[in-house]
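Notes, Module 5: Reading structure tokens.

Key idea: the token line is not a picture. It is a compressed description, and you learn to read it the same way you learned to read a sequence, by spotting repeated patterns. We will look at two proteins. The first is printed below with its tokens.
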Amino acid sequence: MVTHVHARGDERGALLAFAEAQRGAIRRSVLGLTEEQAAGKPSSSELSLSGLLKHVAETELGWLRMARQLPPAIERTEENWADSFRLVEGETIAGMLAFWEKAAQETEEFIRSVPSLDDTFPLPEAPWFPPGGQVSMRWLMLHLVEEIARHAGHADIIRESLDGKTAYELAAESSAAS
């Protein structure tokens, strides 16, 4: 079972490959689980596997929309912020995986279409961003890798707490199924 990222081609290809590798880690974390199991919170944390899946999917789409200077596809406020970390009525793991796949495809198409990874976009006004801040498309991709990888680590711990399966076991199962 190989877990090495095959980053062929240019810098864009490498960044996209690393993002996809981290997406795969989160997708594998829900392999073989029921909706109820994936919603489980085996520690004192509020995090669940299905909630992490939803969060990373929404986050990727949110950053993509920001980079394209479009309004958010999903408005999150203080009142509904917690819903970005849990599946709500009508949402399923399969639906969230499909939603994320579409966002990932949009990310790839967008990153491959920008003239340069040095191109920038403005950050919105928020206390956690510098006033008048801008970031590059390269920064965007590095941030997506960072964000997804952070939550892939959370997913590893949650999954192992649920049924003892490790990331390596799930990668082997995923490879055997394909």
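Here is the second protein, with the sequence above and the tokens below, as before.
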Amino acid sequence: MSETTDRTNANAPTRSRNQKGTTLQGRRGPDVPPGMRGDVTVADRVVAKIAGMAAREIPEIHKLGGGMARAFGAVRERVPGGGSDITQGVSVEVGERQAAVDLDLVVEYGASIADTARDVRANVINAVERMTGLEVVEVNIAVNDVHLPDEGEESEQGGGRRVA
């Protein structure tokens, strides 16, 4: 009797029903190395945090978030215990094996927006794919504002980076 095994189904990532995120199923059996056995679940919020941190690593990025998100973020930072939200300005859609990222950015004045967007996109894709194993199919970037050097301290709160 011939035995057939559908290895694509055993190795394919699947989405968990009760939890937002992605469950990457490992292979099973004694012939599989220990590091490959079991499941890994990556929540949407994890992908959003990784993307937010990766975008902020680019020096020309002042802040993330659109006008209203930044306004709410400023209020949240002033409330004791409110802290800052690293996912502000980041939206993700995570599927079984792929992720899509949308970013709202504020760029420093004088920076090339096209070059900055390219750098952000590359950094986000590399970080998310390296850390999660998901394929990033797209990173959509919306530049909502330009930070001017003479804008006061009030608009600089929130840990934005400055170009030297």
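Summary for the second protein:
- The chain has four helices and six strands.
- The CA atoms of residues 140 and 148 lie 24 Å apart.
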